[in-house]
């Protein structure tokens, strides 16, 4: 498997789905069908924080992801976070996500607590955790969306 890329985006829109689609576009993954998996980084696969995804394949294909996402009607502020910790010896690692109508610092705290709890469940040699939190604000009458997504490799045909 190739690299897992961490991407992020935020947007506002006239509907909840339009705001979410805009946040995916901001992250560069709006043209894929996202398939969520739990939170294990396969052994030996590097994680790279890139912000915006490069071309990961043709539009409409399946893209495997771990996703932190927040969406809400304004007036509000939403935050989505994703954290990851890689093995120090080419073994597996972990992703954890958190989101909500919360302060970005609170979302980061919850992500870090999740990573710590997940690490305590496993006997893996893990390094230092990394976290990214994305925030979006919307006025009354609009919607806000924020995403932080770990995209596993390239897209694959869905049919």
Automatic annotation (TrEMBL):
Gene Ontology terms, MF aspect: arginine decarboxylase activity
Pfam family, one: PvlArgDC
Signal peptide annotation: none
E.C. number: 4.1.1.19
Keywords: Decarboxylase, Lyase, Pyruvate
Cofactor(s), names only, from the UniProt record: pyruvate
BP-aspect Gene Ontology terms: L-arginine catabolic process
Lineage top rank: taxon: Archaea
Matches recorded under PANTHER family: PYRUVOYL-DEPENDENT ARGININE DECARBOXYLASE
Name by which UniProt lists this protein: arginine decarboxylase
Source organism: Halovivax ruber (strain DSM 18193 / JCM 13892 / XH-70)
């Amino acid at each position: 498997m190739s690299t897992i890329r961490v991407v992020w985006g935020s947007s506002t829109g006239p509907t909840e789905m339009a705001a979410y689609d805009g946040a995916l576009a901001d992250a560069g993954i709006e043209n894929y069908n996202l398939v969520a998996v739990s939170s294990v980084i396969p052994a030996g696969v590097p994680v790279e924080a890139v912000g915006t995804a490069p071309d990961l394949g043709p539009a409409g294909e399946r893209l495997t992801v771990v996703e932190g996402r927040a969406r809400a009607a304004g007036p509000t502020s939403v935050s989505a976070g994703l954290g990851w910790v890689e093995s120090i010896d080419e073994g597996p690692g972990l992703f954890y996500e958190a989101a909500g109508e919360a302060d970005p610092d609170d979302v980061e705290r919850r992500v870090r607590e999740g990573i710590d709890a997940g690490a305590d469940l496993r006997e893996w040699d893990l390094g230092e955790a990394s976290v990214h939190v994305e925030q979006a604000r919307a006025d009354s009458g609009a919607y806000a969306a924020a995403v932080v997504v770990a995209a596993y490799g390239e897209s694959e045909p869905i049919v």
